[in-house]
Amino acid sequence: xxxxxxxxxxxxxxxxxxxxxxxxxxxxxxxxxxxxxxxxxxxxxxxxxxxxxxxxxxxxxxxxxxxxxxxxxxxxxxxxxxxxxxxxxxxxxxxxxxxxxxxxxxxxxxxxxxxxxxxxxxxxxxxxxxxxxxxxxxxxxxxxxxxxxxxxxxxxxxxxxxxxxxxxxxxxxxxxxxxxxxxxxxxxxxxxxxxxxxxxxxxxxxxxxxxxxxxxxxxxxxxxxxxxxxxxxxxxxxxxxxxxxxxx
Length: 248
Fold this sequence. Notes:
The chain has 2 domains: 8-80, CATH 3.30.1330.30; 86-245, SPOUT methyltransferase, trefoil knot domain (Alpha/beta knot, 3-Layer(aba) Sandwich). The protein is 31% helix and 21% strand. The protein is built from 10 helices and 12 strands. It has helices at 20-27, 41-45, 60-64, 88-93, 110-122, 140-146, 161-170, 186-189, 208-212, 231-245; strands at residues 4-5, 16-18, 34-39, 55-57, 76-80, 85-86, 101-105, 127-131, 155-158, 173-178, 194-200, 216-218. The strands form 3 sheets. A 6-stranded parallel beta sheet has the order 9-8-7-11-10-12, sandwiched between helices. Strands 2-5-3-4 form a 4-stranded mixed beta sheet. Strands 1-6 form a two-stranded antiparallel ribbon. Helix 6 links the parallel strand 8 and strand 9 (155-158). Helix 5 (110-122) packs parallel to helix 6 (140-146) and helix 5 (110-122) runs parallel beside helix 10 (231-245). It is elongated, with a radius of gyration of 19 Å.
């Protein structure tokens, strides 16, 4: 069984998930622990709730006080324990089947990170690796954007991303950093090895030290009429290219 590091309270509070899809996904995750659920009668009637969960009936206006302003709670809010971290060694131990890894270098926006998680699950990625800092914590916004992927995608948080990239190389991964200023395309950079796709924050891109720990820097072959793509869109295209390049 994979070893997991103890979960950390990065934002000094327990995450609150909202919306039917996010809460349903959390309910289906045996590793998720619930502290409390607030819901309307109508929302509860549409969910298959396990027995023993602490549930409080609440009105729509009451629910709005438990989430950020204008969050689409759809009649249900859940306060949960953060998921336990996965050690990088355990994540890499499961890499024998050739599935790609997604590595995020200081992508801090929860909507982008959540959308990348969703694409990672859609294209059967092995998992996602972020820094322990400079990455979004678990939150309702992240879970909403991930559309259930938060509960099923292995997520490894590391202190030193460059050291983690070295460990990926030792595990046989070909590390491709996405960068717009290089001539090589993603298709040209792909090879027979397992792939780790490394993406940097919008605007800043990959940090120099992280780029130096990549085996190749590659760009997406987009039209000259568009300077760049949103990082979550770029991740989805790169994951598709990696899957096609691997013959999946």
